[in-house]
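Hey L., structure's done. Input below.
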Amino acid sequence: MISKSTIPHIFLFLFLLSFTNTYYIKEGHASSKIITNFTFGSNFYGRYTTHENIFEKIISHNPNLWIWLGNAVYLDQPKFNYFQNSPKSIDYDLIKNLYKKVKEDKFYSELSTTTPIIGTWGDEEYGVINGDKENELKEGFKQYYLDFLDVDAVDIRRHDENLGIYATYSFGQKDKTVRFIILDVKYDQNSYLKEGDNDMLGEKQWKWLEKLFKTKSETYTFICASNQILSNDRFIMKKWYHDSRKKLFDLIGKYHKNGVILLTGGLGFSQILKTFCPLKNITYNLYEFTSSGLGHNNKLSSFLNNFYHNDYLIEGTNYNDINFGQAKIHWGDKVEESYIEFEIYDKNDNVVSNVLVNYTQLMFRENSEYFYSDEKNLKEIRYMNIHDDESCQREIYHRVRTPFMIIKYYFTHITQLPVAIITSLVLIVFAETLFSKRFYYILIFSLLCFVCYCFCYFYDLVKYDSFKNQIIAGN
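Output:
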């Protein structure tokens, strides 16, 4: 029997418990630990994994934090099921065993015992390539991913089917604070195949994000997503919707957020991107660091990427093999003296690209309007056909996508010589078709493409079935 005197204490306890759970989700995990070094990456374990000991290299860097940026495991059904709302079925045994394989990896297991692990999911964990909010099985996939990240049972995302996996984590104290904003670009994303408002995040996530910007002010803010954000010239499945991209930039500018940097993954290669002049609303250059290909790299995406340059790419930072990213934060006595060193490492733990970013480069400036009031710069912007005055003074090399530049690109990389030859032959065939009007070339080429497609499709089915049996049998 509970006495009357204890009832107020019970209510007080329940109130505090409720408050704690709400804070846990809305404001995220907080730690006073000062971050000096964190690592990140994506695209690790699946049918094509070729480098499973990459975490041995990552451990040697003694990171304060590890961030998944999509596709930690590959749960999708055979790769050619692109244009469907939901998976036709869920192989629960395979899903459990895939996540189990990663967590039991010797070096990843060691990393997880000493280092906090956070992250977001990509297409592969979501169960549908280029999937969106219409995935009817998304809640089941969400629970498996939260299990993978060892998210506590009290987390509201465990119980609310209207919430994606977005979250926020803050570290540090005084003038040495860092916030990681983990975005979910799958759970509430509108379908790009339907007309209407194209939205990446959904109303709830936008409100949550704006509240963070409005009420929090850290030294550095890292916005993490599984799709590149800056790039505006990629195929629609691999970029943000224009309206959502602009909305994000407007929010950063509206609340005068200093120190914002973008971290992304999921592409199968690494890049370092930068706006080549201050964004009009943000008033400073945005940087984006993409790392992808922990366990394998996407040869097809890498090949197509060479044809389809990113306008924001910093020359020399594109890397198409196994890699992971690292950020070293060098704290100064004053905030303005701090800087970040970003590095991309290959499978042999060698630096393949790096960029230094001073904090003063990421500070909001009231007088940046001068750039856009200069007539010469405005002419430059219009000439370069830059969307929404987003960037300017870009290197013209990355905007030229002619056959000549493609061949020139390949011949500067001797390892790509066979690809260059094939590319040249294809261009010759097309040229012959266009100028001689021998249209049967088109038919022959189309048939060859169709045969190759069928071969790849059936090969992929066989590969998937073999991989599935191997994983289940190895449990």
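The chain has 14 helices and 13 strands. The longest helix spans residues 440-473.

-- N.
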